[in-house]
Amino acid sequence: MRLSTQQFFLTSLRGVLDNQARLNDLQKQVASGKRIETPADDPIASAQILSVNQQLARTQQYASNAAIAEGRLRLEESTLDGMEEAIQRIRQLTVQSGDGAMTLDDRQTIAIEIKQRLEQLVALANTRDSNDQFIFGGFQSGIQPIVASGTGGYNFQGDAGQLFIKIADSIDVAVSDSGQGLFMDMDQPLNFSALPNAGNSGTLAVDNQAVIDQKLFDEFHPDGATITFDTTGPVPTYTVTRVSDTSVISGGSPSAPLLNVPYSPDEGIEFEGVRVDLSGTPGNGDTIDLVSLPKQKQDMFTAIETLMLGLEGTTNNVTLGELVSDGLNSLDNALNNLLETRAKVGSRLNVIDETLANNDNLELMGRELLSELEDLDYADAISRLSLQSFILEATQKTFTQISNLSLFNFIR
Fold this sequence. Notes:
By secondary structure, this protein is of the alpha+beta class. Among the domains are: 55-188 and 313-360, CATH 1.20.1330.10; 192-294, no CATH class. 52% of the residues lie in helices and 16% in strands. The chain contains 8 helices and 16 strands. The strands form 6 sheets. A 5-stranded antiparallel beta sheet has the order 6-15-8-9-12, with no helix packed on it. Strands 7-14-13 form a 3-stranded antiparallel beta sheet. The protein has a two-stranded antiparallel sheet with strand order 1-2. Strand 13 (269-271) and strand 14 form a beta hairpin. Helix 3 packs antiparallel against helix 6. The longest helix has 58 residues, at 317-374.
């Protein structure tokens, strides 16, 4: 087959240019350290590299999310710790105020510090994060959650929402706790109502009623009691029976069945953690009905305010005893709420730590795989570069030698 001079030159030039392109590609790989410069270099590996890079980007975003979540939870943990310290101090002051040797002036001095601690608690409950958002406001994080009511007590202006941040493909961690459940929905100490029966014929009246042993009364609370008077004997007597089964209840000190006990208006009637002070003259068969009141909710701040106001003006020992008892129960409930929430926050922080460790491992594995897919084997690349340089040089030399071969060189 005969080759035209033009065809010969074009074919040779194409060979030289192809070898130069291959050499140029190898030079780029060596310069960049990457085996794949374009998807055409290795389509399968390129698709894998794209997938790995996407996973690495998600992992880095999760790491950023985890840092944000940890910061919010650390702030909440610190805030709850400050609130616990304040409530513990109020509890110490409450126990101190129950000392019968204290005067009203002494209790008023205690009330002043309790007021300061209450203000501290309200300020902590209205803590803001670095984005100027209230951490206990739920979804309404732009509104101050705890505000004093103009008529006494405190109101919550947030909602029960809880914020979550995604820190892994299948892990969303809570980064907030609503003040609704944390501060406002505390169980109020169980209480009762003592009222003379409407059909009584005597002049019995309830002067005072109080829970003096909350734990004992809490066990009795689902039931009720009836104090029934008998005036047929020389001295009026009373008997206390349980509503559910009419069994006689024991009480007093030392404890004994309250059956036909002589009645004296100067002595209170004590049983199952309650005390009732009566006045007046009973008629035969007259009764005092003790009804357990349903469980109610109260907020931590109003409970402390009630305690503070009581200490400012309480002089009656029985009323003081109930005030202190109710105050301690409310403070214990508040502490339990805070401790439970702190435990949850601690668990979330542990989840974040474990997830960050897993994410670090995933990122390390991803980068190792990425390196295997796209990083250049320098020993192999340099060998191929040398070979390609040799091939290009040989191609150029042979082209030069062959191009000089012409029949006209021999016709002279």
